[in-house]
Design brief:
Number of strands: 35
Distance between the termini: 6 Å
GO molecular function: integrin binding
Strand content: over 45%
Helix content: under 10%
Protein name: Intercellular adhesion molecule 3
Organism: Urocitellus parryii
Subcellular location: Membrane
Number of domains: 4
Number of helices: 1
Membrane topology: Single-pass type I membrane protein
CATH class of the largest domain: Mainly Beta
Radius of gyration: 34 Å
CATH architecture of the largest domain: Sandwich
CATH topology of the largest domain: Immunoglobulin-like
Length: 389
């Protein structure tokens, strides 16, 4: 007697491949072929919640197109043979890269010896089971956590030390599709720089005359021990409303400021000499704009022999790489032209954008898929398998 079977095939090229699990970029289309070895099958159909259309059919098989696949789904090929129903199924998993990776702002100054909690947020990215959040200090990995929730949040706690002064912290989202035959895709946040400090145990020591004769000059000396980072200290010396111009010297964690004061006639009477030491100076926080990358195909659905222009672009300071080939310089596009062949159907083009900020390397990735349309005559080849048992 004959043993009949029903098969589900995904058309990744001109030849079909049976798959139990399909990995697909969000928004793409998929060609599915349901075929059976039954001599006289009835009602060959594809059961799915996705939009579908019949492309072609013949004795023993039917081909369908699924359009704009944006979420995970299950598809089932179904047919009747001699009154009995047969089914074959496959799962579709949609992947997408994170839209935004952001490390929360750090304190303007962090005391040495106190805990600092880092928080990272990641919007988008799928499948979540393959998405991981990594918090880093330079290249040192502080924590690695699965992405949960929307946005996904990752945290790490570090004990701030003197060595953390100037340290740069980042958050990296890793979408690991290597078990599914693709690559490891990383998106990194803009770096945040930490400034740690230690305050002295005692107030500044001020050496100045108790009285001054109008018109005469005297030296004023202000010393502060145990301040870190002393290089960022700002010193103000003043006699009443008269600002002095001190000369500042640094030895280890000790700061010394000296100036010469000349009393004016309008300052006659009791006046205060003030020494004020502060850490840091007001400034602007840098903002980072990371444009792209943008991957463009002149056509995404072509026939065999067609020319396809592929370009990868990003911002003016960003270096881009298209399928492993670097652009000539930052800000310039990476480009290539391919003549579509049978083997290019389903081919992915990978664009990687690289930006260096204060010695830190940031990465962003994007992919696009090319579909080489099959001729109708190819789709009309039935898949009939007979086995004697």
């Amino acid at each position: 007697f004959l043993k009949v079977s029903l098969s589900l095939w995904v058309l990744l090229s001109l030849f079909s491949h049976p798959l139990q699990h399909i990995l697909l970029p969000a928004g793409r289309s998929l060609l599915v072929n349901c075929s059976t070895s039954c001599p006289h099958p009835e009602l060959i159909t594809l059961e799915t919640s996705l939009p579908k259309e019949v492309i072609d059919e013949d004795q023993g098989w039917a081909a369908f197109r699924l359009s704009n696949v944006t979420g995970d789904s299950k598809i089932i090929c179904s047919a009747f043979c001699n009154g009995s129903q047969m089914t074959s199924s496959s799962n579709i998993t949609v992947y997408r890269f994170p839209e935004l990776v952001e490390l929360d702002l750090l304190p303007r100054w962090q005391p040495v010896g106190e805990n600092l909690t880092l928080q990272c947020h990641v919007w988008g990215g799928a499948p979540r089971a393959q998405l991981t959040l990594v918090l880093l200090r330079g290249e040192e990995e502080l924590s690695r956590q699965p992405a949960v929730g929307e946005p996904a949040e990752g945290t790490a706690t570090v004990l701030a030390g003197r060595g953390d002064y100037g340290a740069k912290f980042t958050c990296r989202a890793e979408l690991d599709l290597r078990p599914r035959g693709l690559g490891l895709f990383q998106n990194t946040s803009a770096p945040r720089q930490l400034r740690t400090f230690v305050l002295p145990m005692a107030a500044p020591r001020l050496v100045a005359p108790l009285s001054l004769e109008v018109g005469t000059s005297w030296p004023v000396d202000c010393t502060l021990d145990g301040l870190f980072p002393v290089s960022e200290a700002q010193v103000q010396l003043a006699l009443g409303d008269q600002m002095l111009n001190p000369a500042v010297s640094i030895h280890g964690d000790t700061l010394r400021a000296t100036a010469t004061v000349i009393a004016r006639a309008d300052q006659e009477g009791a006046q205060e000499i003030v020494c004020n030491v502060t850490l840091g100076a007001p400034g602007q926080c840098p903002a980072l704009a990371f444009l792209g990358p943008i991957l463009n195909l002149s056509e995404t659905n072509v026939t065999e022999g067609s020319k396809v222009n592929v370009s990868c672009t990003a911002g003016p300071r960003v270096q881009v790489m298209l399928d492993g080939d670097l652009a000539r310089a930052p800000g310039e596009p990476a480009q290539l032209q391919v003549t579509a062949t049978e083997g290019d159907d389903g081919r992915y083009f990978f664009c990687n954008a690289i930006l260096e900020v204060d010695g830190e390397i940031l990465h962003r990735n994007v992919t696009a898929q090319l579909r080489v349309l099959c001729e109708l005559s190819v789709l009309s080849i039935p898949h009939l398998y007979l086995r004697k048992t």
